[in-house]
Amino acid sequence: MRDIGISIVVLIGLFWTVRFPYVGVLLWTWVTLMVPHQLAFGFSRTFQINLLVAVVTLGSWLLNDKERKFPPLDTHCKLLILYFLWMTFNTFQAVEPDMSWRMWDRVWRVMLLGVLISTMATNKVRIHAVVMVDAMSL
Measured between alpha carbons, how far is residue 104 from residues 7, 31, 72, 92 in Å? Predict the structure, then answer.
């Protein structure tokens, strides 16, 4: 029963994501932080809901002409890019490369979500929405 409920919520969210990409950011944040599909016992436990939400969100964002396409190039964004490059460089030098590349693969996705949030959170309502989704997910 949980599988059906989670799938319905995600499908409704994906429907709205196609029209409003920021809904996808909120849905992606919710799925990333709360991991609701891990609370189910059926097909949604093994299905990669996070990947589906990320692909639909990125596609909707790229095809939407009303959303900003580039992140603000302020100090925080520059430091995040520098930190990502530093992590990538250190992953090449890792003692255990297999484990390091698996962790790097997880981290770049989270950083992509962070950059997408900073790109699309352009007003007070959107920032509050992200904060509320974060608070309720945790």
Answer: 29, 20, 24, 10
> What gap in Å lies between CA 23 and CA 125, rounded to an integer?
12
Cβ atoms of 47 and 30 closer than 8 Å: no
pLDDT (0 to 100) of residue 1: 78
DSSP 94: -
Question: With bands split at pLDDT 50, 70 and 90, how would you rate the model's confidence at 69?
Answer: confident
Count Cβ atoms below 10 Å from residue 38 Cβ, excluding itself.
10
> Rg of the Cα trace of the chain?
16
- Cβ burial, residue 118 (10 Å; 0-12/13-18/19+): middle
- Looking at every residue in the chain, the average pLDDT score rounds to 91
Say if residue 42's pLDDT is above 90: no
Backbone angles phi, psi at 21, to 5 degrees: -60, -25
Structure tokens at 28: 């992606």
Q: What is the predicted pLDDT for the residue at 87?
A: 93
H helical segments located in the chain: 2-19, 21-34, 43-46, 49-63, 75-92, 97-120, 124-137
